[in-house]
Structure formats: C-alpha cells, structure tokens
Amino acid sequence: MNAIKVGLLGIGTVGGGTFHVLRRNQEEIKGRAGRGIEITMVADLDVARAKAIVGDACEVVADARAIIDNPEIDIVVELIGGYGIAKELVLEAIRRGKHVVTANKALLAVHGTEIFAAAHTKGVMVGFEAAVAGGIPIIKALREGLTANRIEWVAGIINGTTNFILSEMRAKGAPFAEVLKEAQRLGYAEADPTFDIEGIDAAHKATLMSAIAFGIPVQFDKAHVEGITQLQATDIKYAEQLGYRIKLLGVARRREQGIELRVHPTLIPANRLIANVEGAMNAVVVQADAVGTTLYYGKGAGAEPTASAVVADLVDITRLATADPEHRVPHLAFRPDAMSSAPILSMDQVRTSFYLRLRVADEAGVLSRITTTLAEHDISIDAVLQRESAEGERQTDLIILTHDTVEGRMNKALAQMQTLSSVLAPIVKIRKEELA
Q: Which pTM does this prediction carry?
C-alpha cells in the first residue's frame, strides 16, 4: 500500500521535532499504521533554515498554499500558530478534502466549532492531540479511553511556564517578577509571556478539554481567565503552612445548572499527586463515574514530546483514512447531533472554597467581626491562621480557609468586610479545590 503523504506548514521547534521523530521511528510507525507516513513537502518562510533541517528528504517551499494545492498531499500538518493565516489554511485544506493535524490550541479554542463542522461536512479528520499538554495523550484519554464514563470534572496544570514560575516562587520565596526573569533567561518563558502568565494559553486548553469531556461546543469566550501576575510569595508561604500548594489550574466541572469553565491560581492539598507536579511539567486529573480518578502526567511542551502527539494523530488518520466517516471517532467525542446545550456558568454561580488573607489592625474584636460577616452570608470557616504582629507593629495577617460556597455570596461578604475600619488593605482571595 502506498505511503500517506504529509505536508508540513511550518518547521520550527515542533515541526523539526515531528520531522525527526517520524524519520527515526519510521519502521515502528509503519508497523502500527499499516502503511508508511512520509513528509514530502515543507512550507516555511525561512526556506534556507527549513532546507538545513530536512536536507534532500522532501521539497521545501515558501508558500504554504503550494502544499494545499498539491493533489498528492493527503494530510496537512499546521504548525504555524495564531488565528489569522492558520485558520485560512486549515479551512482551505479541509475544503480540498485533506485531513488536518494541528497543535494550534488558540485556533481551535476560538474557531473550533467552525473548523470541526467544516471537517464533518467534507468527511475529513482534524487531529489535535498536540494542542493540549504536549506529549500527554489527554485528548485520546478523554475522547476514547474514558468513553464509557460520565465525566464529572477535569482539572489540570496545563501550562509549563506558569508551573515553573510557581514552583520557583515556592522553593525560593522569591517574588513573581524576579522568577519570571529567570524563566525567560532559561527559555521557559517567551520574551512576551502574556499568553502564559495571564492564563490565556491554559484557558485555550481547558476549553478544548471541556468540550470533549461534556459534549459541548468550544466556548473560549465564556471561560473565566485569571493569571498569576498578582500572586504574592507571601500567599504561597501561608498556603504551604496550611498544607496546600498553589498552582495555576484549568478546571472544567459539570454542575446541575451547567458547566464551570475557569482558569485561575488555586490552592490544592499538598498530599494530592497533582500538587507535587513541579517545574515545567504538566498534569491532568479526570474524575469519572466508572473509573474514578485518573491522572495523566508528562512534558507539556518541547520539540519531541509535542511531536509525539502530532505523529500519533498522523497514525490515527492513516489507520482510519479509508473508514466510513460516520464511523470514525467524533472530533469532540460526541456525535454532532448529540452535543449538549448545557450553558457555561458565570463565576458568580461557581461553587468552591476559598483562601482569604486580610491585613488587619492588631486589636481586640477583629476576628469576631470578620467571622460574623462571613456567617451573615452563610459562609462557614474551615481553618484560621492569625500571625503574631511584629514587634512595634499594630497590624497583622489574618488567614481564613472557608468551606464550599457560591462565589457571588463570597464576593458580597468580601465587599462588606472591606468596609471595616480594622481591614487595612485589599483582601486577597484565592480559590481552593480539594480535588477529592
């Protein structure tokens, strides 16, 4: 049987990794796929650099449309990134009846509904395992491995840059800005790290996981997104003393009223496996009714880990290319006519517990006034940590952990507490997840 011919759009870090992994493991991949998979064309604006990577192994062009126009190309691998030209090229490849593999989480989180619909109409596949958590096969796990289950929630450390920063802040007690500079020096953070540190990258990935887990359309615009730029080393230290670690967590949770979809710094009990994921590593926990709790851990970025996922998609498409399109695994796990209309809940409707840090006057009755305010809003307290004030100071930190409550109720309580004369600074609020 003739080999499947692949066109690569972009041969940067991931593209180069894909080329090398596919060549190095060609015989093993052929044995698993049932036929060869060959990259026969590469498109990159830097033709000289691309040729230096691939040598004489395939044709190199500057114009990506030359690959889409080539009738011999069966699968287009999009590794350009972004929303603009990448979207045009992916949709054009689909219109030409070509299968697509992409690592572009931003594109799919924002335009996935349109792209998947176009692919369904043309009877072609879109593989995107590499778009979430690099080499960890979390898309396949959610879409296929757990298909017998009703998934209750998914929670993940899905951005290596922010996890490295938080790990360093905890280990060294250093402030965010200092650790960010170190992350940039070591190559963990981009020169412009906005997408990572503001939680946008993680939210793109959480959006895709929520769609697969719950059979809903991709709805990035409805996700709640907070980054780590305002997080202080003080809170990381207090969390540690209370038996918690702070991680930037992407959470998708099924509720009776709808779906929670949120990314934000989160306290996690230190005895949970995911709380001990350090450095630039990724991990995802899934809670489902039949199997219970499962954990997926590994490298979330890098040339060959991400290439591993790209090649896995190429193998899947090669195996199923001749299958009846109606009997392939649906892009978002559920058939289009079985998708759910469950709404994404607003943050006011989200139910979770909280860590609160209040800078208060060190005087009698302060704790009583704070706890009374919480009780008036039907918020119960799990733990309290009150620091001794330093010698000569008349103020101190009051740390409170709450039980689960609705966020809208908590916000009203915080607004009332903030007006108290004994509360001397803006109250710090961080959500807490037991993940039990």
A: 0.95
